[in-house]
Amino acid sequence: MPGSKVTDDGYVRGYYFKIPKDASDRRLTQININGGDYHVFGIRLGDSVEQAAEKLKQRGYKRTKSMEDIYREGIHRTRFQKELVIIDLQTEMNSQIIKGISVLTDYP
Q: Would residue 95 count as lying in a domain?
């Protein structure tokens, strides 16, 4: 995307965008965790979506209704949101084991 920048260490990928679009500085707007010993609120790769949902509910996140089940490229995505922060849990089809975690912003 024009104006974007990506950093990647093989385990975590970060996306930086200009927000608003005419801003001079880029801001980190999305983080994807695909490996390594990283976690979000204690949620790690290999945990179940059910365990993660409980941890997120305790922190005030709610499962989104409009994008509850997203299937893309054989991956099932379950999203939770609190204000402008979205946590997206990725699993393989017919599995509840988390294979990827994304944290992103929902800027208007």
A: yes
